Structure formats: C-alpha cells, structure tokens
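Fold tokens
===========
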Amino acid sequence: MYLTIEILRIIVPWIFILGIVYFIVTKFIANENKKQWHTEKIAKQKILLPVRMQAYERIILFLERISINHLILRINHSGITSAQLHNELIASTREEFNHNLSQQVYISFQGWELVKAAIEENIMLINTVSNKINRESQSFELAGKLLEEAAARREDPVVRALDFLKKEAGNLL
C-alpha cells in the first residue's frame, strides 16, 4: 500500500506537468500555424492587389469606352449610313467586351453582373433606336437620336456599374 501511494505521489504530478506541457505545445503550434497562414495571406495580397487593381482599371476604362457618348464620338464619321453606324457600334462594344472578358476573375460577381447588364442595356438601346431610324439615312441621325435617348434614361447602366466598381476598388485599399 505504501508503495502504491509513493508511486501515485510521483506519477500524479508528472501527469499534471505533461498535461500542462501538452496544452502549451498545442497552443504554440496553433499560434505558429495562424502566423504562417497570416504571412502567406499577406504575401498573396501583395501579389494579387496590383493585379486586381489593374483589372478594375481596365474594366472602368472599358465601361467608359462603351458609354453611348464615347462610342459615338469614337466611331461616328461622315459618309456612313445609320445601318453602318449601328453595326460598328455593336461590333465595337462586343469587341471591347471580348477583349476584357478575363477581368471577371478579379472583380466580384456582383460587379461583373453590373458590367454585363450595362453592355446588354447599351446594345438594346442601340438596337431599339436603330429600328426607329431609316437604315439608309446619314449616321448623324442615329447618333443624335441615340444621344437623346441615352440622356433621357432614368439611370445610365454604365454609370451605375462605374460607381459600384469604383467603390469596390476603393475598398481593396
């Protein structure tokens, strides 16, 4: 009996000490893992942040380029018909979109949906106004009507997407 008590007097403190050591080691390992994860996250952000900011810049430039005002200024020239202007406006919008398609990887889903909605609404406006105009008339007739209709819109989808993306890009910093 005396031997059992002596063994317990030696073993119980060791079990207690081992428990404390185990607790301290597991906490230490968890903290080290957390530090490593945080360090890796910071390293990834250093690499990804400039790429994401470039994506936002490109999408914002894209949206500016496909706004009705800028499209007409860039594409309309004398000597073409309304039908030709219509085709060039649609082709330019789609070409710009295809050129920037990969940028969706770097912006939010909601931001990309607003970009797509802006494109679709612009194309719909171009098609709708073009259907009201004689296709053989001079391009300035279609251009003028498009500018009127764009100005009369309650909310410009391009401006809505631009505002959202600028705010989202600002939140990255």
The mean pLDDT is 93. The radius of gyration is 31 Å.
